[in-house]
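EI: anyone free to look at a 281-residue chain?
SC: sure, send it
EI:
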Amino acid sequence: LMHLFDPERHIVAIEQPGFAGVAQVLANNRFSIAPLDVSSSEAFFGDLERSGAKIVFVTPSHQFPTGRIMSYADRMRLIEWAHAQGAFILEDDYDSEYRYQERPIPSLQSLDRYGCVIYTGTFSKAFSPAMRVSYLVLPPELVGPYRDRMRSYWCPVSWVTQKALGVMLGNGFYEKHVRRQVKYHRTSQRLLIGALHEAFGDKVAIDGEGAGLHLWLHVDDARPTEELIALGLEEGVRVYPSHPYWVDAKKAQPGTLLMGYSAISHRLIAPGIRALARAWR
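SC: here you go
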């Protein structure tokens, strides 16, 4: 997709913290990166106004990794900014199927009246990571250039996989599967949050409970984050650091960790959190 843009002329603004892979791909293609602080609307739009960006990468339905959900007002403000600046918004809707608490806010792409939103999604989260099937919805202005530039590239997804997925979508099997998955993972999240509150009380603050398959934790502990991770591993519990998700790793908040729950059995959640509490006592 970035082959449609010029690294000599187009600055790309990305969320901070955000997907580490996005920053790496942009750097490999020699694009200048402008980080956007996602801690508040004021910080985000302040950084955006100063960025000079012509492309903005965002995850509004479930910001990765903080789990925050962009408000309707901020979505409209972002679209109006892009239109005024002649910029494009790259909306990555990577796991919006997993919504637990709120009615979904319309995607940026569905709110866009100007043709400035590029919408991407994937079936990896909801169906199977092994499929590696994603999709792209381009604004009319970019369809022709994309076809011209990519006509010699082969699709890496086999026709058998595409056909099978098409059958699932056409027959309603996919929607039924997603409903089952959402029900299961909603329970996983409820059990995990309950276990964290019981084990740690107010020593652990939780973000990102509105959607997704992970939680963003703020641990009130003076020990280095790396030490907390190592102690957890000694008890068989894996949590992940936050610094890889920052353009400037030095700005990562101490004691901030990511905890996933997509692949854990319900019966193991409470014992796992009790083990983590022992490790961090």
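EI: Strands lie at 12-16, 33-37, 55-58, 88-93, 117-122, 134-137, 204-207, 214-219, 240-241, 256-260.
SC: 👍
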